[in-house]
Amino acid sequence: MKTEDFVQAVKMVVLEQAVSDMIENLEEPPGRTPPRELIQLSSFYKGLSHQNQEIIKKILIQTAEMSLFGMFCVLDGVRAIENIENKGTLELWYRNGEETFLLNDPEEEFLHDLI
Description:
Layout lengths: L2 H25 L8 H11 L3 H27 L16 E4 L2 E4 L13
Antiparallel strand pairs: 1-2
Helix pairs in contact: 1-3
């Protein structure tokens, strides 16, 4: 798996699915007794015009993109998760049979630049 393929796969199965799941939850809160907060959000969302619901969807997409961008920045080592002088590094390896790839190779294009 190439780095570009990994980023696209994560966007599809994480980012796009999270937005889709949230919209579904807003349209029809799941479960017998959904959390009160979700019911409130659902009522708000359902009370909006179709145009404003589309704006909410765009906000959700941008928020998910920003979250994924931030996570990739952490994996790339350009956003610190440690507040110490001597920071460690993260390595993200993909293995499939005999093939092994370092997906966040600091010598290659950053993951966060591929979003």
